[in-house]
Amino acid sequence: MSLADKITMLMARPGGENAQKDDIPWWMRYAGRGLGTVGSFIAIILGLLNCTGIIFLNVSCLIAGIWQMLAGFLVIVCEAPCCCFFIDYVQVLSDKVESRPYWNKAALYMGLALPPFFLCFFALSTWFGSGLIFATGIIYGMMALGKKGSRDDMAAMAAGGTTPPGAPAPPTQDHSVTLMEDPDVWRPN
Q1: What pTM was estimated for this model as a whole?
Q2: What is the pLDDT of residue 18?
Q3: CA-CA distance, 80 to 151, in Å (whole number)?
Q4: Which residues of the chain have pLDDT under 50?
Q5: What is the pLDDT of residue 189?
Q6: What sign results for the dihedral spanned by CA atoms 29, 30, 36, 39?
């Protein structure tokens, strides 16, 4: 067994389908998974650093640090369950989150990243740690938007067309008609 096969086996999700279900580029999938994994490790470490705000009697930074560590742990459970294999139900949670649409993951990650910003706004560790989790949510949000249109579709739209070629044309209406000229809109009593 070669080294590449071993790495592929480690990166594959147990019990998961290896076939791609949608047309998201491979680099965007790995960007989301990689940034989520590395960013959550960094968020946990910076959340611990943020908890040292209790030395200066800053309780809101302590709460923000704890929240940031919990958010980082949840993201790492969802993105890289192999890092937490010692916890019983990590794989079940990871599979449940993986079966959801991309916009659900984007909303979850962005929602988890926002509260530390409001609690400890001026700490750089909050901006960088929760910012990485937020960036992971942005990548999943871009994946939820899907593939952009073809070159022909975009050229037709840029040329002033209202619909891409091949799509059914919407019903046209004359927008220059005023209220007084259209008998269907205005009827006197």
Answers
A1: 0.71
A2: 41
A3: 36
A4: 17-20
A5: 56
A6: negative
pLDDT in tens, 23-36: 788 899 999 999 99
**Where are the chain's structural domains?**
25-146
Q: Are 113 and 46 in contact (CB under 8 A)?
A: no
Tracing tokens 């929240």 back to the chain, one arrives at: 67
114, 129, 146, 157, 161 from 22: Cα distances, Å: 29, 30, 9, 25, 28
What is the DSSP code (8-state) at residue 162?
Answer: S
Q: Tell me, what's the pLDDT at 56?
A: 86
CA 42/CA 29 separation, integer angstroms: 20
Q: What is the dihedral of CA 138, 11, 91, 126, to 10 degrees?
A: -40
C-alpha 6/C-alpha 29 separation (Å) is 20
Token output for 67 = 């929240």
